[in-house]
Amino acid sequence: MSIFTKFSTVIKSNINDLISRAENPEKMLNQIILDMRDQLSKAKREVAAAIADERKLRAQLEDEVKQARDWEHRAMLAVKEGRDDLAKQALVRQQEHAQRAAVLDGTWRAQADETDKLKGSLRQLNDKIEEAKRKRNLLIAKQKRAQAQKRIHETMSGLSDTSAFDAFNRMAEKIEEEERRSVAQVEVTEALEGDSLEDEFLRLESGGEDLGVDDKLLALKGRMGLLPGGGAEAPKQLEAPDSEDGEVDAAAGEDEAGDGVPHEDPPIREAELLEEFEKLESEGGDQPR
């Protein structure tokens, strides 16, 4: 597993854990950014260690190449001096250093390639973190808008819920029903416990039934002092309207069927009644005598 694969797994694990227990998205996003920067710092240290290893290999390679070159020079010097035995020993050492240099060259080149890749991945990780920081504010704004829409939806759902109003209406109806029952119970109790004979005499003492129109007329004349000697004067009838030929209908007080039995005059229409009163007022009839 490469260094960045390991760090990517750690970051994903931390992010998933934060998301699963997220309470405040803004704080969680800030925490995620902090975790990313922390992982970036660790990645930088790992890349720095890889670069140090690459440079160490390169130094070893350069040393082996130098050693091989030096032993070759020594072999040449021994040949010049006629010391073939020393020249052979120097060539053996030169070959050993050359072989190690060849091995180190392959290892160093591979390490150098990996180091370059790590540097590129490190730059990409840093760029992604910077991009995440730029997107953080946008995500927070979206989250707040989503919360606002959720609150609006919950409020509208609450307004459309009539269960509380229905319960209130049922309770009001129940209270009114109890009040009606209480009033009915009182009426029943009074009807059972009251004295009906006493109630009848109380009604008689209070004046009995309402007076008729003729009695009310006599009472009004009495208050106006228009009854001479305390006698009762028959109420004056309003004049019936003239017929079309100008004569008064002689049968106004008789039954229409002609049976000779007098009947009450038919009620005068309101317009005619008002007209009669206007005549009286014009003649000063509304003044008491």
Description:
The chain has 289 residues and is mainly alpha-helical. It contains seven helices and no strands. α2 runs antiparallel to α3. The radius of gyration is 63 Å and the shape is rod-shaped. The protein starts with a helix and ends in a 7-residue tail after the last helix.
Q: Which stretches of 5+ consecutive residues score pLDDT under 50?
A: 231-238, 240-258
Q: List the quaternary state of the chains.
A: single chain
Strand fraction equals under 5%
Number of strands: 0
Q: What is the helix/strand order?
A: HHHHHHH
Largest sheet: none
**Global outline:** rod-shaped
Radius of gyration: 63 Å
Our count of helices gives 7
Q: What is the CA-CA span between the terminal residues?
A: 131 Å
Structural class by helix and strand composition: mainly alpha
Could you tell me the mean pLDDT? 75
Helix share bin: over 70%
Reconstruct the topology from this structure.
Elements: H1 3-20, H2 25-80, H3 84-160, H4 163-193, H5 196-205, H6 213-224, H7 270-282
Question: What attributes characterize this protein structure?
Answer:
0% strand; rod-shaped; mainly alpha
